[in-house]
Specification:
Shape: globular
Structural class: alpha/beta
Radius of gyration: 18 Å
Number of helices: 11
CATH class of the largest domain: Alpha Beta
CATH topology of the largest domain: Rossmann fold
Strand content: 15-25%
Low-confidence stretches: 262-268
Number of strands: 9
Helix content: 25-40%
Length: 268
């Protein structure tokens, strides 16, 4: 699959994999910071952003997409950073192909299954309830999903998927049908078989429950050379909630600067 991607900087390669309902746009701010020391690639995962749609949406398929991307762009030993769904993909790529990678960074996800089906079904239902033949602007879409998605941050995140089609009609970039049909596979843990013996970093939000203390033994089972760091004032979208702290942790782990401008703002 020929993934759409964004590309910044020069230096050692770094690949950033976004999460469910996300896209490369969500990580541009961090990517530009990291691009002062790294060559950064941010692909849109299949069924997301501007990448192709497919009825298949599971971790082996997404891992194969990333491996094809690495081969196509002749990327040598990248650091792979993945958030949420992208973190599970990154774990699978790393454990099955550790000779191809330099290091692994996982943001707020553990190698396990999650019982989030009802939450995601509500989000999908809200998005599917928008009749794009009857809306003329973004505010009208927001009014529709406001009735079903009460968390303003989730609404903001979801609305980044809005785009303008031809003839001024709107649509969703994410492939809602594929996500709906494969939701159990997305919630499942990546089927890890190997052990990643290179350095790995897991960063969790202190206000998120995606990585619990009880998950530490499981993480270290597959990633024995791993650091686990907590950013106390961050939720699941760590890169949006605490960009300065995340940069500091990435600098510690990679040995390279992650420049941070306190005046910059980041959105999920």
């Amino acid at each position: 699959m020929n993934l759409f991607y964004r590309h910044f900087g020069e230096g050692p390669p770094l690949i950033i994999l976004h999460g469910l309902y996300g896209m490369s746009d969500n990580w541009v701010t961090l990517a530009r910071r990291m691009a002062e020391k790294f060559e950064v690639f941010i692909p849109d995962m299949r069924n997301h952003g501007q990448s192709p749609h497919s009825p298949t949406h599971n971790y082996p398929a997404m891992a194969d997409d990333v491996l094809d991307f690495i081969s196509e762009h002749k990327i040598k030993k990248p650091i792979i950073l993945g958030h949420s769904m992208g973190g599970k993909v990154a774990m699978l790529v790393a454990t099955e192909n550790q000779e191809m990678t330099e290091r692994l960074i996982v943001i707020d996800i553990a190698p396990k299954a999650y019982d989030l089906k009802n939450i995601h079904l509500d989000i999908l239902k809200a998005m599917q309830s928008v009749d794009f033949t009857k809306v003329t602007n973004r505010n009208e879409v927001e009014e529709i999903i406001n009735e079903q998605i009460t968390d303003p941050r989730i609404r903001l995140f979801i609305q980044k998927n809005l785009f303008r089609r031809e003839r001024n009609a709107f649509g969703w970039r994410v492939n809602l049908q594929a996500i709906h049909d494969n939701l159990d596979l997305v919630a499942d843990g990546p089927a890890l078989e190997g052990v990643y013996e290179k350095p790995a970093l897991f960063v969790r939000g202190g206000q998120s429950d995606y990585i619990l203390d009880a998950d530490f033994p499981l993480i270290r089972k597959f990633f024995p050379v791993s650091l686990i760091r907590t950013i106390e004032n961050a939720g699941h979208w760590v890169h949006a909630d605490a960009p300065k702290q995340l940069c500091s942790i990435l600098r510690e782990f990679t040995g390279q600067d992650c420049p941070y401008d306190a005046d910059e703002t980041t959105i999920v």
